[in-house]
Write a structure and sequence with these properties.
Length: about 350
Amino acid sequence: MSLSSTMRKRAILITGASGEVGHALIQRLAAEGTSRLVTVDIRPLPDEIRPLVTHFEGDLLNTRLLARLVTEYEIEVIYHLAALLSTRAEIAPEAAHQVNVEGTLGLLMLAADQTQWMNRPVQFIFPSSIAVYGLPDKETKLHFQRVREFEWNQPRTMYGCNKLYCEMLGGYFTRYYRQLAAGSVPTIDFRCVRFPGLISADTLPSGGTSDYAPEMLHAAARGEPYACFVREDVRIPFLAMPDAVRAILMLSQAPRETLTRSIYNVTSFSLSARQIRDRVLHAFPGAEISFEPDIKREAIVDSWPADVDDSAARIDWGWSPEYGVDRAFDEYLVPAIRRHYRRDEAQV
Ligand code: AKB
């Protein structure tokens, strides 16, 4: 046993823990009995997940915070969820680059150092995004319906560029980092899922461009009018939050030798904004939903594919979503959102 492992506590690190995916992932890991969760976020944690983890409130770019983490913990797995999403990143591109790229680079270096200390690979799970794709126009989008991982990697947003580059950095750290050092250097185990738009019943995203779907649904459940910022026919793929968390955990648990690549698309259903509106109206017949496109945000969504091909994930690690479109709306989103806002009303 190394000196470090006699002194430090083993831990699973989750960055961006206060965000939507962090919230759902922590609840799921804690429900499975995982106790050694250490989290970092610039924001405080929501009350319901605070007791489940040891939280460090602070900036990932703060090297002293990272140094403190590794003096206290032997970090075996990193779920690196922290990011500025696509709309917010267009408003503050430099800040987005710092958080999304420099933040990721710092953590990859930390993972590489920990890998050497422990002499076994730290697993680095990285959620990427449909934003890494950039289709040049609507005709191309119509023609190339289900895009594979290596196609159309020409993002038109800062966020998409950041995610695509960090995917490559992850591959570099897995295969080539310190390639000129003497002897063999153990490398990290980087694994990436590319998510489509995510929809959660419990939380709302902030700063994304696929946000119109969850916003429409949550506004209807709250009895508030909603003006959708993309045209009715704009279509992208989506995944319900429980499936997003399942995908992360399935990829993390997959035996290394079954993985033929480090980057995998995952998806469930592809819907136009009109089809989402129709489903929301079916569940909440009085909902007031209008379409008032913001042509700049709409152009971002138009550059994302109508659907993605996730067959590599299906073949390599048995991925298949549990929530197809009917089950996602009828058994998860609508009932859980109703419960969520009823609970809120009861607490007022
Ligand atoms: C965003 O809209 O920026 C995100 C994403 C598609 O990754 N939800």
